[in-house]
Amino acid sequence: MKRVIVIGGGAAGMMAAVSAADAGGKVCLLEKNEKLGKKIYITGKGRCNVTNAGEKEVFFSNVMSNPKFLYSSFHEFDNRAMMKFLEEAGCRLKVERGDRVFPVSDHSSDVIAALTREIQRRKIEVKLHAQAKDLLIQDGRIAGILLTNGDRLYADSVIVATGGLSYAATGSTGDGYRFAQQAGHGLTEPFPSLVPFLISESFCGELMGLSLKNVSVSLIFEQREIYSGFGEMLFTHFGVSGPLILSASSYYVQALRRWKEAPGRRKDALPVEKGEKNPEVPDALLYIDLKPALSEEQLERRILRDFEENKKKQFKNAVNRLFPIRLIPVMISLSGIYPDRKVSEITKEERRRLVAITKKLPLTILGVGDYNEAVITKGGITVKEVNPSTMESKKVKGLYFAGEVLDLDALTGGFNLQIAWSTGYLAGKSAGLESGEEETNGL
Fold first, then answer.
1. Are 311 and 334 part of one and the same domain?
2. 175: containing domain
3. Are 187 and 381 in contact (CB under 8 A)?
């Protein structure tokens, strides 16, 4: 029976362990934390957006980095297969807006429990508080791993599913990058992604906790639009967050990476601390359309109606149907209209300025939050050095990679977890089926 070690008990690692066992492998799953699935537990605000029920084209259109690399793994184990797997494992699912799939209970713990049951049913050995220190490589093939306690575990195949750098408290501390480099692999520089924006304007802090629904944003980088979207956003102490902003941040980070990699660019030319901005980084602006359903002309007519109904009131008391209460002082300030001014005294020019700021509220981007705020890591092990049909290393025989440790990422909506499920499944199946005839006892 094939001996397979899986390093990392997250989404990709748990799926890889199940798949390897189904392929006939004798599997040992290593997790350095006290329990499996710590990052799964916090995904989707604790609800776990396990996948997206959209068609294949929707999945690939939402993958930001190296979508073609995922053709084989998604074909082998797609979103429908994952939904069937969880349902049969006792975790009932539901589909919400945007085809996002969640457990019916809204508890991510039910997803972890279902995976854990399947691991137990297959009699997979699970070692908790077990941290890999180094790979054991002999004559160009994997032989096992060395643990931090000095123990050596020998195997025919090793699957690295250690995640990236986001949410380090869950165990994602970049160990897999070190293992990959030890095996001769290159890395695409990691960046935090699906992460809040740090904004220059101080009023964001004043609005902290205010959520805006049904707004649209436009992201401008180097004087061109690189993203536009519609949805929900949230003001934070340092800037803005929420689903719409997290998606925008993925485009920003990708543009920033490309800009940085241009010939002659300084490698340290990136945003640094919160509230600061590296002066060499191009300016980026985020425009918020607070009334995307209305054209400027329609919005002006709406404001005229409101003003006509409240013509004896002060301006500050005549826009309560136009904006959320907490946003009113900010919009009044940005409009340049004196708050105590009678509505009947507001000029056409001032009214149009209010329309303009409502349709295009500008925010100056300083940068993005750090890995502790990032949902995922953009970058990782260079996929050109991994076989997409098996997830096996092209450098070391018997070494496999799965999940966020690879240079693969997607937008919000369940797509990143599906990357983990698909690559984990294919890596496990390939590792469990490998011939494994070579002996590893020579170490």
1. yes
2. 2-191+378-433
3. yes
